[in-house]
Amino acid sequence: MTALVLLGGNAAQAAEGATKRIMVYGDSNTWGYVPVESGPTTRYPADVRWPGVLQAALGPDYEVIDEGLSARTTDLPDPTLPQISGAGLDGSAYLPAAIATHLPLDLVVIMLGTNDVKKMFNRSPLRIALGVGKLADIVAQTKGGVGTSYPAPKVLILCPPPLGTVAPPERAERFAGGVEKSKALPAYYEAIATAAGADFLDVGKLTATDGVDGIHFTATAHAAIGNGVAEKIRTILK
Predict the structure, then answer these.
(1) Cα–Cα dist 161/136, whole Å
(2) Which helix (H) or strand (E) holds 24?
(3) What are the residues facing 199 on neighbouring strands?
(4) Could you give the CA distance from residue 157 to residue 110 in angstroms, rounded to a whole number?
(5) Is 112 in contact with 132 (CB distance < 8 Å)?
(6) 74-110: b (≥16 Cβ within 10 Å) or e
């Protein structure tokens, strides 16, 4: 009986060790923000959000960890939302702790940059892409976290699809000039991913930004992203 228990335990450990662990790091479109014309909103259920679709598509040999935060930028603090204290909305400030929290990780998937196109940040597409490159470098440098010897995970950089028609008018003003910037991002993101030794996927080839507010995704878009990213991840972690 003891031998069977030990064998069972070893088998369980082997199965656990074989599981590929993926952390998805993003903003409101990773968090699952339901697009609305104005006012407060709610969050899509876990199985509708694209990380949940990704988990279902990849199956039980993978574990997808959802680290989405509404209004998160690549590496910028946002003074308009002081209620998020600590690392705040600066993706680069929180990323090391997020990685260390979820180790071991095989892959970190980054989809950020939509909030960087806001008018108040006055960022060029190149500067936004450099912010994403900074995140890829953080992943490479974080490695074992606190007191462990895990290797640095691989990185997959996702370029968000271009913004749609942003509404209502006050939101359109906040994102003034953002549509043009968002359309220019894929080429810069791909170049930065290549320079950083990361994998790359243009999410705009999977779906448009189809929510009524021109910023967020419908459930249909979430499904397209989750399934498309799953296909890419299989090639990375085969």
Answers:
(1) 19
(2) strand 20-26
(3) 156
(4) 5
(5) yes
(6) bbbebeeeeebeebbbbbbbbbeebbbebbebbbbbb
3-state secondary structure of 108: strand
pLDDT tens-digit map of 182-238: 999 999 999 999 999 999 999 999 999 999 999 999 999 999 999 999 999 999 998
pLDDT of residue 17: 55
Residue ranges of alpha helices (H) inside 73-168 are 91-102, 125-142
Q: What is the pLDDT of residues 133-187, one digit of tens each?
A: 999 999 999 878 888 999 999 999 999 999 999 999 999 999 999 999 999 999 9
Distance CA 173, CA 166 (A): 9
Could you tell me the two tokens for 193?
A: 């991913």
> Has residue 14 got a pLDDT over 90?
no
- Here the tokens at position 5 are 């228990």
The domains of the chain, with CATH numbers, are: 19-236 (3.40.50.1110)
